[in-house]
Amino acid sequence: MSLEKEFEGQTVTDAAIEACKELGIPRDELEFEVVQEESSGVLGIGSRNAIIKVLNMPEEVQSNNLTNNEITETENLFINHEDIEKIFKEIVNHFIGDADISTEVIEKNIFLKLNTEKDLGFLIGKKGEMIKNLEFLLSRIASKQTGRSVYVSIDINSYREKRTEKLKERVKTLVDKVIAINRPLSLNPMNSFERRISYLIIEENDQVTYKTKEYGRLKKITIFPKKMDI
Fold first, then answer.
1. Angle at 10 between CA 6 and CA 12, to 5 degrees
2. Best exposed site among 25, 153, 161, 223 by fewest CB in 10 Å?
3. How confident is the model over 116-168, as pLDDT tens digits?
4. Is 122 helix (H, G, I), strand (E, B) or coil?
């Protein structure tokens, strides 16, 4: 039995990384076709992410996915994160020496948080590309050790917190624009964490409402004025 599933990312490579991370398989075992190429649009308008469809996933991966759905939250809490934290520390120490790293495990997610006064922009990379690569590598290692999908997230000097604040500002700006032009506008496709933040911002304004539509494995939010001119 084969299984097909779509994944999305800013580029085809990003989408492939997300697929490997979730399925817990190496890149050379990933078979996929490109459903949609990424596009930067014109002056940022009409931009779109890449979407791939994973083909013929191995039966053991399908079995693992089914098993993961049956794992209770209590069982997920027993993920051994010490090896992952140790590997991450070794990578960081190679560049800056000792650093303050904290770890939190929630269900099948390992959150690594690094704080330092040193500039680690190079470790974040352009648009967070380096962090994505590190997360993929560590997720792959963790998944292989546990025999099921484990996701590793990295936050360097509150980089994710700053991105969250930028997202809030972007949503607020779009809400104001929807009200000003009295026409619906859409945000770029987002994951569940980003959508939750967006919903809270949108719901603060009683002049707008929203709808969410599937967009690959992500979802796109469209904001509507409650009283729209026809």
1. 55
2. 161
3. 777 767 777 776 677 778 888 888 888 877 777 777 888 887 777 788 888 99
4. helix
Q: Is the dihedral of CA 50, 56, 79, 196 positive or negative?
A: positive
Q: What is the pTM of this model?
A: 0.47
Is CATH 3.30.1370.50 correct for 161-225? Answer: yes
Phi, psi of 212 (to 5 degrees): -120, 135
Taking only the tens place, the pLDDT of each residue in 41-57 is 554 455 677 888 887 66
Structural tokens at position 73: 């939250």
Specify whether the CB–CB gap between 207 and 179 falls below 8 A. yes
Q: Domain spans of the chain?
A: 5-70, 75-157, 161-225
Return the amino acid letter for 115.
N
Contact present, 174 and 201 (Cβ < 8 Å): no
pLDDT at 3: 55
**Are the CB atoms for 178 and 134 separated by under 8 Å?**
no
The sign of the torsion formed by the CA atoms of 5, 10, 11, 15 equals negative
